[in-house]
From TrEMBL:
Identification of the protein by name: F-BAR domain-containing protein
SUPFAM superfamilies per the UniProt record, alphabetical: BAR/IMD domain-like (SSF103657)
InterPro entries on file: AH/BAR_dom_sf, F_BAR_dom, FCH_dom
Source taxon at top rank: Eukaryota
Pfam families: FCH
Coiled coil stretches, renumbered: 80-161
Keyword Phosphoprotein: no
Keywords of this entry: Coiled coil
Record has Coiled coil as a keyword: yes
Occurrences of domain F-BAR (ranges): 1-236
Length: 236
């Protein structure tokens, strides 16, 4: 699924954010579980060391060497050595996991959180541009309708005075002047409204075909890299 073609809607945007929030929570859960495992492994390693130390007391307590050559004593010594090796391996592995795997998880979490914020901020920015020009079109449309209504009133008033008072008179001149001003104002607002509609259409086209697809495509590429990193971490 391509983000740039399938996730341009508001629902798609919210789905993207929701998925990223869920993945961040999952990463945080994995990090906590890994920390718990490290603590358990180290506790187990310490416990095995304690068991080994306890078991070695028998050998150290045999001052008269009564157990020398004993097959049972040799087998017991082998068991203790194996326990000691397991304890060392557990500690070494815990240190490696803490230094490498846990650090990679922390880095991945930080980078994914940063990528989410970058995407949301940029999406908000370009969406706000569209929202602002849409609001401007709405305001200009209301102004145009207001001027159109005023023009109709002035024209009706002028026509009434024209037919009642003839072609002259101070009153008629005053009404004619107001009518002409209303006409000029209407033409001005009409031109501004038309230009704004053209600008809004161009912005909408740019938003849908360039800005938003580019943002989504870039975000998809970053998320795919995160998935690869995540998969590699889990394979370790």
């Amino acid at each position: 699924m391509g983000f740039s073609t399938n996730l341009q809607s508001r629902g798609g945007h919210e789905a993207l954010l929701g998925r990223q929030d869920a993945e961040l929570r999952l990463l945080e859960t994995m990090r906590r579980c890994l920390l718990t495992k490290l603590r358990c492994d180290r506790d187990y390693s310490s416990a095995l060391c304690a068991v080994t130390a306890q078991g070695q007391k028998v050998e150290r307590g045999d001052e008269n060497n009564y157990l020398t050559g004993s097959l049972v004593a040799q087998a017991w010594k082998g068991v203790l050595e194996e326990l000691e090796n397991v304890a060392k391996l557990l500690k070494i592995n815990a240190d490696i996991v803490e230094k490498e795997t846990l650090e990679k998880l922390n880095t991945l979490y930080i980078e994914k959180k940063k990528a989410r914020k970058t995407y949301q901020d940029e999406h908000t920015r370009i969406s706000l541009q569209m929202s602002n020009i849409t609001e401007e079109v709405t305001r200009k449309k209301a102004e145009y309708q207001k001027q159109l209504e005023n023009y109709r009133q002035m024209r009706s008033r002028f026509e009434d005075h024209y037919f009642k008072s003839g072609r002259g008179g101070r009153k008629l001149d005053d009404v004619r002047d107001k009518y002409q001003r209303a006409c000029r104002k209407l033409h001005l607002v009409h031109n501004e409204y038309v230009l704004l509609l053209v600008e809004a259409e161009e912005n909408e086209q740019s938003f849908r075909t360039t800005l938003l697809p580019a943002l989504l495509q870039q975000h998809q590429a970053s998320q795919e890299l995160f998935v690869k990193s995540w998969r590699n971490i889990m394979r370790e």
